[in-house]
């Protein structure tokens, strides 16, 4: 913790000197993230620019062949983008590269071990890094997240390893959810088995990877139950307990062949029994502390009757009750907190926790059923999405929870609700840099939309004031916000219509077909379209999507059916652009695809933009959404109004 107090003092001083930077995050002690990728033109090298680097910082690159000592590659200090092409590498064999800041005469010149990387030119694939995985039969690598688990300055991956799963609306037995941790060089650190009393499915198992106690090592946090086995083989709770609703006797003889649509809706659900939240050591997977999961199935009750479930949630088979979301937020502006939620179609309960000195401590609990309101309809119930976002919407230095159509303040009280209801997608960021503050592009769905129903809208993220309505009178399933057209300032917005809007509501042409995710990939400051494991560029003149990367043809596949997402898209290594993490089609490896397209832009790693970094923490939750930076990144840069 003392280390982080020192770092906090440092970056506060830097922010005073450079207030335009926004909210930098130096909670993680990152190295340079040097990466070497083999290409047809040579070896592409890329590294991180850190927020505390001087504006005129320059770099030197070093190369060593075999066991030879490294020698400097560049004649002049590198002052442009943090990329370099070694166009004349050795024809074969092992090559080691290193990166240093250009120093004054007599200073340190050769790179430290943590800022070196080796590549075997006889074996390294072209265009990506490969992490061999150890996936059990019947399972596959699913959503992933990143954190510095071992404190070495580079990220590791925590992967949800999924077997047979079911949606909340369906009955059926599932396989126990697994989690694996891997280093980027392919070492598996641990496996955690959540056990049969935690159901597998897209809405059941959000997880968090972050350094919550400031000791330099990220922890892993998720919902657990009786029979969860940690990374050291120790069971949590009663390992012999089985809380699943069993198959009716009349169907048991044919259980293996019974189609899931014919099963009663509660079969395989876990509607009673203890639920826990556990913080695990990121290095070993060992359970550090476990508490009763909040929110519970009913107030102060893990075992509500079917009647009470229906009264509280609106159904009695766990469909609405077991909708979980999770996030990390700096609720005090200085330290990260754990945020867990339950429910968004009707009742919504959000709990915030701190992890300090090895113990989990409750910070606050927000319950939509306990908020006073005027009128007949509770504006705090039924407002959540299949996703969550975290941002300092009121610019007080402390994060708020953007929960669909409402926002919960850093102290656990409601900040506002638009009362526009549930939706599948939301995007919060500096979408319109011409106006002060942040904006939220929010998508809404309705089974029976009236003519005046608002299907999509852009709102002021601090006040909830609607800035413009995109689509009326129609249920909208998905929507996107990203700067894809350099002719207009800010992000472009689309969803539920053929129209593409500017950030101030002007229709500028037809919208892209893709409404899934976005990625910074090709080296300009526009964002590209990410759909599954395909990356496309929006041609704003021809109104067409241009293929940049074809994942299926390259041998990787997407996850989660109609969610159709990669394992992760994040700025994990190298320069400021994002990497694509996907599982190989043969289920034997994870691949990290790195953009080797030349770029002229020099920018601090996105992982030191606090809002973006927290977006990586919640990306795996529900319907995966892309992270957004607090500071606008786009083709047209405007001075921010005060």
UniProtKB/TrEMBL annotation:
Protein name: Rhamnogalacturonan endolyase YesW
UniProt keyword Cell inner membrane present: no
InterPro entries for the chain: Ig-like_fold, Integrin_alpha_N, RGI_lyase, RGL11, RGL11_C
Domain Rhamnogalacturonan I lyase beta-sheet: 27-91
Enzyme Commission number, as recorded: 4.2.2.23
Species, as recorded: Crateriforma conspicua
Top class in the EC scheme: lyase
Domain of life: Bacteria
Name of the gene encoding the protein in the UniProt record: yesW
Domain Rhamnogalacturonan lyase family 11 C-terminal: 137-640
GO molecular function: rhamnogalacturonan endolyase activity
Pfam families assigned to the protein according to its UniProt record, in alphabetical order: RGI_lyase, RGL11_C
């Amino acid at each position: 913790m003392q280390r982080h107090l020192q770092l906090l003092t440092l970056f506060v001083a830097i922010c005073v000197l450079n207030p335009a930077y926004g909210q930098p995050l130096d909670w993680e002690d990152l190295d340079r993230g040097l990466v070497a990728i083999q290409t047809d033109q040579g070896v592409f090298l890329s590294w991180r620019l850190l927020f505390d680097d001087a504006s005129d910082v320059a770099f030197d690159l070093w190369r060593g062949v075999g066991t030879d000592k490294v020698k400097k590659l560049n004649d002049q200090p590198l002052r442009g983008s943090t990329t370099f092409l070694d166009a004349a590498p050795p024809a074969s064999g092992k090559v080691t590269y290193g990166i240093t800041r250009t120093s004054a005469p007599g200073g340190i010149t050769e790179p430290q071990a943590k800022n070196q990387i080796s590549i075997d030119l006889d074996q390294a694939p072209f265009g990506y890094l490969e992490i061999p995985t150890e996936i059990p039969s019947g399972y596959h690598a699913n959503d992933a997240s990143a954190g510095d688990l071992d404190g070495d300055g580079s990220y590791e991956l925590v992967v949800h390893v999924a077997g047979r799963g079911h949606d909340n609306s369906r009955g059926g037995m599932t396989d126990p959810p697994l989690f694996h941790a891997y280093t980027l060089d392919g070492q598996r650190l641990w496996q955690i088995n959540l056990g049969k009393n935690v159901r597998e499915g897209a809405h059941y198992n959000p997880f968090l990877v972050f350094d919550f106690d400031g000791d330099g090592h990220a922890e892993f946090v998720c919902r657990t139950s009786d029979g969860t086995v940690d990374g050291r083989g120790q069971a949590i709770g009663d390992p012999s307990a089985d809380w699943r609703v069993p198959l009716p006797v009349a169907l048991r003889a044919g259980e293996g062949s019974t189609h899931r649509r014919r099963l009663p809706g509660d079969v395989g659900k876990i509607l009673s029994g203890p639920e826990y939240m556990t913080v695990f050591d990121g290095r070993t997977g060992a359970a550090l502390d476990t508490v009763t999961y909040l929110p519970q199935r009913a107030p102060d009750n893990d075992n509500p009757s079917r009647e009470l479930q229906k009264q509280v949630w609106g159904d009695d088979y766990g469909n609405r009750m077991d909708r979980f979301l999770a996030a990390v937020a700096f609720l005090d502006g200085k330290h990260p907190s754990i945020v867990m939620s339950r429910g968004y179609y009707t009742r919504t309960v959000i709990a915030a926790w701190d992890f300090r000195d090895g113990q989990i401590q409750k910070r606050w609990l927000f319950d939509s059923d306990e908020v006073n309101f005027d009128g007949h309809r509770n504006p705090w119930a039924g407002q959540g999405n299949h996703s969550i976002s975290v941002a300092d919407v009121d610019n007080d230095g402390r994060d708020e929870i953007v929960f669909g159509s409402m926002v919960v303040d850093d102290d656990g009280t409601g900040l506002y609700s638009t009362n526009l209801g549930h939706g599948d997608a939301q995007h919060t960021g500096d979408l319109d840099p011409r106006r002060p503050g942040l904006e939220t592009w929010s998508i809404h769905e309705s089974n029976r939309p009236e003519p005046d129903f608002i299907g999509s809208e852009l709102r002021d993220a601090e006040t909830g004031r609607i800035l413009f309505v995109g689509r009326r009178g129609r249920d909208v399933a998905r929507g996107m916000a990203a700067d894809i057209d350099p002719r207009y300032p800010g992000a472009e917005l689309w969803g539920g219509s053929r129209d593409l809007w500017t950030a101030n509501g002007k229709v500028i042409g037809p919208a892209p077909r893709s409404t899934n995710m976005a990625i910074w990939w090709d080296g300009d400051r526009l964002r590209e379209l990410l759909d599954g494991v395909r990356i496309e560029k929006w041609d704003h003149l021809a109104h067409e999507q241009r293929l940049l990367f074809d994942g299926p043809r390259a041998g990787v596949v997407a996850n989660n059916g109609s969610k159709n997402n990669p394992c992760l898209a994040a700025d994990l290594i190298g320069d400021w652009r994002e990497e694509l993490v996907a599982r190989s089609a043969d289920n034997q490896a994870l691949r990290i695809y790195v953009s080797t397209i030349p770029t002229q832009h020099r920018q601090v790693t996105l992982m030191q933009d606090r809002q973006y970094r927290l977006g990586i923490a919640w990306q795996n939750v529900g319907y995966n959404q892309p992270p957004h930076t607090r500071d606008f990144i786009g083709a047209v840069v405007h001075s921010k109004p005060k």
